[in-house]
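Example record

One chain of 577 residues, shown exactly as stored in the release files.
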Amino acid sequence: MNNVKFKDLNLSNSVQMAIDSIGYEEATPIQAESIPHIMEGKDVTGLAQTGTGKTFAFGIPAIEKLDLNSKDVQVLVLCPTRELAIQTCEGLKQLTKYTEEAKIIPIYGGQQIDRQIAALKKNPQIVVGTPGRVMDHMRRKTLKLANVSMFILDEADEMLNMGFREDIDTILKQAPENRQIILFSATMSKGIMDITAKYQKKDAVKIKISHVELVTPNIEQYYLEVSEASKADVLTRLLDSMNIKLAVVFCNTKRKVDDVTLHLQASGYMVEALHGDIRQSQRDVIMRKFRKGDIDILVATDVAARGIDIDDIDVVFNYDIPSDEEYYVHRIGRTGRAGRFGKAYTFVVGREIYKLKDIQKYAKANINLYKAPSYEDVLDKKIMQKVQKIKADLEKGNISKYVNIVEKIIAEENMTSLDIAAVLLKLEFEKANKTISSSDTDKKDGKSRSRNINSEGIINGNITRMFVNMGKLDGFDTGAMRDMLIDDLKVPKNSISDIKVLDKFSFVNIDKEYVDQVLKNMNGKEYNGRDLNLEVSGSSRENGGKREDKRRGNKSMFSDKKDNRRKSPENFKRKRK
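Predicted C-alpha cells for this chain:
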C-alpha cells in the first residue's frame, strides 16, 4: 500500500487535526498497512525496523478506540527501555493534542514509584511502561489489567533479547479473554513466533515491511576520503557550510566521542556527548534538550544511540566507519524518518574504502563521493546567509533609527553609505573567518589552542583564557559552563570557545571584550554551595594545573578548601545574584 494519506484512513477530527498540526500528510508503509486492521479489532504482528513510524501505527488506532468516559486503563504499551517508554508516551501525547480527555502516562524503573502511583490514581486510559515496572505495579495492585482491551508490545525482539520473556508471559496471562494483542518487531525470531502463537487469535494479521524497502529510501548518502588527523577539521567545515537544526555524529569509542564533543564545543556548537559512561539521569536531560532544540548536535556511540528516536534529525555523520554493516543501516536510520528526507556522510580513511564497499553491497545503497568544502566555500556560504538575512530585515522594516545614524555619520564624517556597509561587512566576516579557520590552527603539530596563551591569558590579542574554580567533581560540565556564561554572565554564545573541564577546575576562552563583564557579573554567585570564581588564566597555571592534578591523584593545587561540600549533579544548585 503506497501513498496513503492520513485523510484516507477515516480518522476522527481530533486525531486528524493533531496529525495536521505535526505536519504529516502521508502514512508510512507500516502505518498504512497496520491502522485499518487494528481499527477493525484484529490482532496484528508487524515486522518493521526502527524509524518506520510504528508509534503512530499503533498509537492512532489506540487513541481512536478509547472510551473517554471510562476511568479504567484500556491500553497497555510495553517497551524494552525507559528511553523508548518516554519517547513513545511523548509521541502518543502529540496525537491527543485535541483530545483533552485522554490521559497517557509512562511508568519505568529509575523513577520514584510513589510518583507513578499518584499518576495512576488520576485514571489514565493509556499506560506506557517497561515490563519490570509494570509487574511492580501489578503486584502492588496499583495497575489493574482487568479492563485493558489492547496490549501493545513495541520492539518485542529487543524485550526478548533483554530477558523479559517471563515478564511478558506474566503480564499477558493477566489479560482479559476479549482483548487485542498488537506486536511490533524488527525480526521474526522463534521467541516472537511463540508469543504470537500463544496469545494472538488465529485470524491475526501479519504485516512485513521488507528490509530492502527500509534501507534509507529518503536519505542521500555520501562518503569523504580523509586522513585521521583531518577528520575534526572536515567535520567542522561541513557543519559550518550547512543549515542544520539537529545532527548526530557517530564514533566507535567513548574516548573518541569525548574528543569530538570537545572540539565541536570549542567551535561554538551546542553539542553534548552520549555514551555508556554517562549516567542515565544525565542522558535523560541531554535527550530532552536535544528534542527541544537546545542542543544542535549529539555525538554518540552505537550503544548509546539506541535511545535516540527522534524524527527531525537532518543529518548523520559517521565520524568513524562502523565496525558492522548493520550498524551503518542503524546509524543512518536516525535521519530520513517518517517520510522526511535526510543526509548521511561517512568519513573513510585509507583502506577503509574496502569496508565501505561491503557496506554498500549489504545496504543495497548508492554512497557517492563527496568533496569537503574549503574554508573559502564556508565563508562564501556564510556571506550569502548574511545577505539573505539583510534582505529579510529590509522587508520587515523598522530600521529608521539606524538610517538616521548612518545619515548622521555620512554628514559629519565625510563617508558614503557604501563605505559604512563595506566596513560593517568586513568586521562581521573577519570574525566569521576567524571562527572558521580556528580549527585549522588549533591542532597543528598536535598542539591545542590553549598552549598559545601568554602570561596574561591572552590568545591572539582578541581572546582571553579564563580559569574557573569548578570541575567535574562539582557536577560541572561543558553544558553547565556554557549555560552559566550565557544565562548568568551574559556572554554571547559565539564569543565562547575551547571549554575544558577537568576534575576540580576548568578553562574557557571568551572574547576579550567580555572579560570585565564576566568579572563584574559573577559576584555573589554560587554552585553547590561554593563561591564561583573566574579569573584570567595563564599557560603556567593551565599546564601546571593539569600535571599537578594528575600527579596528586586529583588533589589539584587549585582545589577549593570546601571539597567536602561537593555534591552530585542531581544536587547541583545555582544561586543567582
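Notes: Residues 435-453, 539-577 have pLDDT under 50 and may be disordered.
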